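Fig. S4 source data, part A: sequence.
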Amino acid sequence: MCRILGVSRSTCYYQARPKNSETALEKAVIEEFDKSRKNYGTRKLKVALALLGFTVSRRKLATIMRKFHLVSNYTKATFKKGKNSVNEAPIRNELNRQFKQEQVLQAIVTDLTYVRVGNKWHYVCFILDLFNREIIGHSAGAHKTAALVKEAIYQIPFSLANVQLFHTDRGSEFDNQEVDEILAAFDIQRSLSDKGCPYDNAVAESTYKSFKKEFVYPNHFQTLEQLKVQLFDYVNWWNHIRFHGTLNYQSPVSFRIAKSIRNDTENQLISKI
């Protein structure tokens, strides 16, 4: 009959096997995960379950962990740097690591860093005056573009005509015609770090390191608006309240005001002489 109907003989004798319950396995996974203080991933859970007599693949363990929302403490979002083009402009490093400046706005530096907002990466741009490490302009946005740099420039409360040098690394976000036009309009000299040398922009790098430890890591941001509000408060604290070791433990604004008063006093004494 099977031959006439063209049906395999094994089909007539086939009986579906009852699916084994995974309740015991799932319970063991949850218990071992909790015993590890939520630190074990699939590799270590596989070993722990093998000691209990369970033979299970890491893929199966990953499925169970997703089902019960078991996330290891080691599973954290990390920033993956994209392959962006580099500014190859023949502009020299005019700053030449002269990070100690004697005049306000004699040299300003900038860079961008990343911040986690919700489940996406966003970016923050600071512009710093090397004279007193003051953040004179800042911006935050969802994209690492020249628009973020321009927004930070527009926030500078001082006359750009007083800025002498504008130093950045060779990121593509700084290679923009509109940024060049702003600098040219106010006769601001450009300066670029050497390719692949973060030490040439060490003050910006150091500022972002402090920014991450003091602001980014202790907080969680769900929206860009939340980030901007808290960022404004942090910048105000950085400029007006926070002690800076390089400024003899004064805030940037206090240092700038004290320096201005000192210069005015010296000029008055000179004029009297």
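Fig. S4 source data, part B ends here. Residues 25 and 31 are 10 Å apart (CA to CA).
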